[in-house]
What does this fold into?
Amino acid sequence: MDPRGALRRHFGFDAFRPGQEEAVRAALEGRDALVVMPTGAGKSLCYQLPALEREDLTIVVSPLVSLMQDQVESLRRIAPDAVALLNSQQSMAENRDVLQRAAAGRLKLLYVAPERFASRWFLDHVQRAQLGLFVVDEAHCVSQWGHDFRPDYFRLADAARYLRARAIMALTATATPRVADDVVARLGLAEPVRVTTGFDRPNLSFAVVGCRSREDKQRRIATVLHDLESRPAIVYAGTRNGCEELAKSLGRELGLDVAVYHAGLERERRAAVQRAFMAGDTPIVVATNAFGMGVDKADVRTVVHATVPQSIEQFYQEAGRAGRDGRPARCLLFSEQRDKGLHTFFIERAAVEDAAFGAVARRLVRQAAENGRYDVELGLLADAAICDRDAARAIVGHLSRAGVVQPAPSPPDRAIGRLVGAWDRRALLTCRTSAGEGQRIRWRQYRAIWGFVEQRRCRRAALLRHFGDRSQPHTDVDVPCCDVCDPAIAPGPAPKRHDDDIDEAILALIAIADPALQRPQIAEILRGSRSQTVMRHAYDGLPQYGAFSQMRSDQVLQRVDMLVARGVLRSRRGTLGRA
Ligand code: ADP
Ligand code: MG
It folds into this structure.
């Protein structure tokens, strides 16, 4: 078979990207594979294409329902009846129908969440299907060294074997050599084909900007985003409150609506923000890390980190959303000494006291029915352990590793599962070890990201080294590398504010100019241009002529537009006057 023909036929793409063809061939031949490519490189195609070409069923395990939904929707345009997903938000009847179609050989791709493999009912149905590829996307979740470890991923190797999959394909964007080896071991990959494209993104420039205070930081970010060429932009802020506050201050400084995206907003609201950003109607989104997976906008020109993220993996994954179209883009990380204290605080808070394991275990025992099944609100467990919901979910994960419970697919705010072992001293010891590992990993990530922020060597080289990419950083001659190699690219201190002055100057100019001015002429006059119009009407004699020569034309015009938007100015047949 001809992979290139299939690529054109199914996806309409002319050529494979680096690594894709190798991965596709491995999957078509039924060989195990480990695919390591940076975010946006096109990992999904590595299994989607062979799945569509193969006769048997491909199962795709992915940690995020929203991610799966996006993929299923776009695949349905290509192969309407061949793709489905199982999902705890779907009704039992729908899920049963999907499984029946899979068992009858009528599906090519089935997307499932990892918790699903705890269900006997599910396994027995799928066992009837002829299983080809078993795909583990975001495979770093298998590894305890990965930044996003999920206990549910532990069962996958057993499941793949039980279901007699022909081959396993693991894909990730965040494989340090240690994670990669761990993924291979935990999934039991047999002599896998290893596909690795380099981690370098030559069209991205990196800068770390140290800030003195929060105000200093906000002003600097505003200065960057003021520049139209820095948009569309994603600004990552650490917390929901941080997002709201920063979006307000940026909106004020820039005179436009800056959108906010975080998990605390209603589902519809989030979808609307994402849609508007994708469509290009919203130039700037301030978001938590909830905004990301599934956001595949090619022309993002800037990714700003307004706080230092928890790990280099997280940083590079988020920063990597810039410049997917291959054109130059910037990744700016604004750091403040205060962030360090916050990191320490969160890591220390994540430490689980022995009492908390017991409290959650006892609550589950109390809530469980006679047959050992439980279905409780996460909030109840959090109350029992005196912690937040995320921590409570993590504790359930540790209890699962200790063999006390077996979690089942559950909506985000509930814990559903079955008691499978006693809560005793041995279980406590396992929980303690499991949680201790988590802490050690968090501290290691903390040292790595702060090492990156505080060192004074090439940022790009440091990132590549972190990901075990030994290649020489290759930089485009047209794209500055980083703030260390090329200090000019770091945004400088915020300039003195001119907004009030320039607004005044625009209004004064409009009041005295004769004949009345059109929009572009305002910029020409204030910037001291010697254009024909300026010379013909002797505008160069006006007191405001050349007073803002340091501003760019689009910056001046933006202030004009803002005065119009605020109703201070009005445009009549192209000329501007006081409203
Ligand atoms: P990853 O999972 O590695 O982050 P995705 O699989 O989500 O990346 O792909 C990112 C984008 O690249 C998608 O929009 C996809 O359609 C596009 N893409 C993938 N392969 C190709 C290709 N060969 N040619 C053009 N576009 C591609
Ligand atoms: Mg992906």
